[in-house]
Specification:
Elements: H1 2-9, E1 16-24, E2 29-33, E3 38-45, E4 47-52, E5 55-60, E6 63-67, E7 73-76, E8 83-90, H2 100-105, H3 107-113, E9 117-123, H4 126-140, H5 147-165, E10 170-173, H6 179-190, H7 198-205, H8 209-220, H9 224-242, H10 247-253, H11 259-270, H12 274-279
Antiparallel strand pairs: 1-8, 2-7, 3-6, 3-8, 4-5, 4-7, 6-9, 9-10
Helix pairs in contact: 4-5, 6-7, 6-9, 7-8, 9-11, 10-11
Length: 285
Amino acid sequence: MESTIGRLVHREQDMIYNALPRTLQPGYNFGPHCHKNVEVCMMTEGECDIVVDGETITVRTGEMMVIFSHMIHSFHMRSRRPARFLQMHFQPDSFSGVEADVVRDVKFLSYITDEHSAYLLLPFSDRLRDCVERICMEMNSKTEEHCKPLAKIYIYEMVFLLSREISQGYRRIFVIENPLAIKAIQYINDHMEEKIMLSDVAAACHVTARHLSSVFKDITNITVNDYINIAKVDNAMRWLTGTDLTMAEIASKLGFSSTQYFSTVFKRYTRVTPGEYKDMSEKDI
């Protein structure tokens, strides 16, 4: 096990995008969105409905949900009481290239690296909560030294603790098997840097727009246009934080007719503008 720890820890990427305590008020809704980061939501008080791939899961006090990369999800506060939870986003790429025997030994890593993982729901122990609280504390400290290195150490602790406690949880697998939906998604992904219309996708799939819309919504629980926009916003978020591209360049690269329209679509799915997203590193998207 010592060699496993050493082979994991000796990786130098910025792992954690953000980690912070959050309070959601009754009536709060955050519409469908997705991102490359793995998201951890640890409910410490109250409850919140989280919709992942069209399935509504009520996360209650003492439970945590891990939402894996690129899963379309949304938050809905139907309770009359506020919900308080610890939220963290971390980069799955930090674990890419990990040797197969390490992935086998550390169960949670196999979930992270499995592209079909949708979410993991499980009760959390006091030790796991303490670990996530320490990550949040270090990531939000403005005065203490060595905050990010300590948070990085703690996230490895979290991975091992989750692997230990994972048998108490439930993992949902996301697999699209419908040939028409698969073909439509492939077309969208292949033409991400173009202006994509529903009619374009339907023509590429050799079906009518009406038929494609009906089948796609049944399989994915969102419309074709929503999927196109969410996929473009997902790419935009990565480029905003991981490249030096300007907003105008990103808008053009993704096939938007103007920077203003790009900003409108971006805010529709993230609740912040591209500029706000880029400037606010602590923003919990």
